[in-house]
Write a structure and sequence with these properties.
4 copies of one chain form a homotetramer. In chain A, 79% of the residues lie in helices and 0% in strands. By secondary structure, chain A is mainly α. The longest helix of chain A has 26 residues. The structure holds a DNA duplex (21 and 21 nucleotides). Chains A, B, C, D: This is HTH tetR-type domain-containing protein.
Chain lengths: 197, 197, 197, 197
DNA sequence: CATGAATGAGTTTTCATTCAT
DNA sequence: CATGAATGAAAACTCATTCAT
C-alpha cells in the first residue's frame, strides 16, 4: 500500500527531524531514529538510501524556499530605504510577516541547517547567507559587505529564527515573536544610521 | 619536570580547543587531538581522566568568569536605567569594553560552550543564560523574563559573541567589533522603549 | 498462465546468470537480480526457494551434461592413443567440436561453476574435475593422476573454456576459438611425449 | 615494542592472505581475519587503515616484481625467436626458472590478484596482462595482439601459475612443476608455427 | 501471483578508553 | 611518564529472507 509507505516515510522523517534537532545531524544515530520511528534500522534503508538522503528530503523544501526568497528580494532591486520609508515599514511591521516570502523562515528545519558541520548543505547554507548579506549591505547602503552592521543583522536574524523556533513552536506565536525581534533589530540599525548622518 | 608536564597539558588543551571549535565537543576525536598535540592517544589519559575532563579544564575559567560577571551584575542591584542614563551609557560605550567584567565574553571557549549538546555543562550554560535573562529583564523593567525583548538581546548577544570570536580572533579588533554590535543592539531596545512610553 | 510463469522464471534465471558471471555467485546481490529481472525481491522467492535454488536450476543442465560427457568418455574405455592416432585426431580437429559431447563445454554457466567458492557444487565440480583428470591420465598413459601433464591440460582446458566464453560469446566463433586452443594444447602434449619416447 | 608490532602486522597479513585465497578478497571477512590472527576486529585497524590497505600491502611486492619483469622483457627488444633458438631455449628450460625474473611468478599472492573483482588492482592487473600479451604477440611474430594464440598462452600461463601455487606450495616443487607447464606450452605453440610455415 | 515492508544478522569502520610494558 | 597495542561497543550500511496484504 502506498498510503502506508508514505506514512512510514513521514514517521521516519519526523523522527529524524527530532533527533537532528536534539543531537545535530552528525550526532544523531540511525538506530535511535529507527527506534523512535517504531521500525528497525534496516527498514529505514528501504525508504532512504542513507542518512544523508533523509537530511536531503528534510531540507529540500525549506532550502528551496529560502533560496527563492533571497532571489526574489535581490531581483526587486528596490531603492535604498530612506529613513521615512524605514519608519513606515516598521510601523507596518505587523503586516510584514503576512508577506508570504518571510513565512519560509519560520521553519524548524532551518535550525538543523544552521547547525550542520558536514555534507554539501554547508556550502549551500554559507552561499545563501553570503548572498543575503551582500544584498542586505546594498539595501542598507553599506559599502563593504563585511561591515559589522550586516554581520550583526545577519547573525541576529539567524539567532532569532533559531530561538523563536525552538521555544515557541506554534506558528501564530512564532510569527508575533519574530516580528518583535525584527522590529527591535531594525530600530537599532536605523537609530545608528541616524547618528551617523 | 613540572614545567614540561604543564606544557604538555597546555598543548593538549590547545589542540582540544581547536578540535572542539571545528567539530564541536561531541564530534571531536581523541585520536585527532592526540595527533595535533604531538603526543599519543594513551598519553592524554595521563593528563586527563577522559574526554570530558579536558572539556572541564577548558571551560572552567570562562564559565566561572561569566558566572561571576552575572552575579556581580545582579548583586549591584543598580536601579533601572532611565532613558537618559541609557543614552549616556551608549555615548560612553567605547569605554564599556574596558570594563573588566565584559572582557570575559571575548573568549573563544564560550563558542564551544554554546554548541554543547551533552555533559553537565549544558545545564550550567542554560542556568547562566536564564539568570542573565532574568536580570536583564529586571534591568529593562520587563515584567516577564520570557519576554521577547530579553530573548532578542540575549540571542543577539550570544550570536555576536560567537561571530566576533570566530571571524575576528585578534582581541583588539574583537573588542571594537563587539562594541559596535552592542551599540546597535542597545539603540534598538532603547528606541523601542521610547516608542512605548 | 503457466507460460507467463515460465517466462518470469526464465527472466530471473537470465538476470541471475548475468549477475553471477559479473560478481560471482557469492558476490551477486538478490536485489540487483530482482531489478535486472524487472521484478521484485519478494517475488523471486515465489519462483525460487532461495539464492542457492537459482544456482541449482542454473547449473543443473550444464553440470549434468559435463558429467555425462565424462562418464561416456570413461565408459568407452578406448585404447591409448598411439602417436599416429593422435595426429590423425589433430588433423581432423575441425570436426572434433561437432562431436556433440564437446558442445556442452561451451556453456557460459560453467564459468560460474568454476568460480564458485561455496555450496555443494564445489564438491561436484572438484569431483568431476578429478574424474576427468584420472581418465585423461589413463588416456595419455600417465601413471600418476597428479602428474603435471594432466594438470596442465586440465587447467588450460578450463582457462580456455572460461576465456572463450567470456570474450567470444557467439557460439560459432567460440567453437573456432576453442578448436585452436585445443589444437595447440594437444600439439604441446604430443611433442612432449615424442621427446620422452 | 616494535618487534611485537611487526610480528602482529605479519600475523594479520598472513591470516588475511589465507582468507583472501579461500574466499577471495571481496568475500573475506575482517572478523574472520581478526579471529584467525588471534586479535580483535578493532585492533586490526591499528595496523591497517582498512581492508583495502591489507590488500595493498599484500600485493605491493608481487605486483611490482611482475611489472618489473614485464618491463625488463619488453625493454630487451630481442629479436624474434627462430625455431632453432626456441628449441634451444626449451632444451635449457631447466635453467630458465633460475632466471631471477621468472621467480616472481611463483607467488601465492598472485592468485589473489587474479581473482580480484574490485579495487584499483583490477586495472593494474588488466593493464599488466595486456602489456604482456602485446609483447608476447610481438615475440611470436603475431600481427594481432588479440590473436587466439596469445590468449591461449596467456591464459594457460595464468591458469598454471594459479594451479601450481595452490597445489604445490613448496617452492622447489613448484619450480619443477612450472617448468613442465612452460615446456609443454612452448612445444604446443612451436609445433603449431611449424605447421603454419 | 505480486508487492514491498519488515527483520535480524551480517558487513566494514570508528571511537573512547584501558593496560601492559 | 610515555607508548601504542588491545578492547568492546557503537556507528552506518547491506543482505538474504519472510510475510502480511
Amino acid at each position: 500500500m502506498q498510503t502506508k509507505k508514505d506514512e512510514i516515510r513521514k514517521t521516519i522523517l519526523e523522527a529524524a527531524q527530532k533527533e537532528f534537532l536534539i543531537h545535530g545531524y552528525e550526532g544523531a544515530s540511525m538506530r535511535t531514529i529507527a527506534k523512535k520511528a517504531n521500525t528497525t534500522l534496516g527498514n529505514i534503508y528501504h525508504y532512504y538510501e542513507n542518512k544523508e538522503a533523509i537530511l536531503e528530503e528534510l531540507l529540500r523544501e525549506p532550502v528551496e524556499k529560502v533560496k527563492k526568497m533571497i532571489d526574489d528580494h535581490v531581483k526587486l532591486q528596490d531603492d535604498l530605504y530612506t529613513m521615512a520609508e524605514m519608519q513606515e515599514l516598521l510601523g507596518d511591521l505587523d503586516n510584514l510577516m503576512d508577506y508570504h516570502e518571510m513565512q519560509c523562515l519560520l521553519d524548524e528545519r532551518l535550525v538543523i541547517l544552521f547547525d550542520l558541520r558536514t555534507t554539501h548543505f554547508v556550502k549551500i547554507r554559507d552561499d545563501a547567507i553570503h548572498k543575503f548579506k551582500q544584498h542586505l549591505a546594498w539595501h542598507l547602503g553599506m559599502d563593504d559587505d563585511d561591515s559589522a552592521y550586516v554581520d550583526i543583522i545577519m547573525n541576529t536574524f539567524i539567532a532569532c529564527v533559531r530561538h523563536v523556533l525552538s521555544e515557541h513552536k506554534g506558528t501564530e506565536e512564532s510569527k508575533k515573536e519574530f516580528i518583535k525581534v525584527f522590529k527591535v533589530l531594525c530600530a537599532g540599525v536605523m537609530s545608528n544610521r541616524k547618528e551617523e548622518e
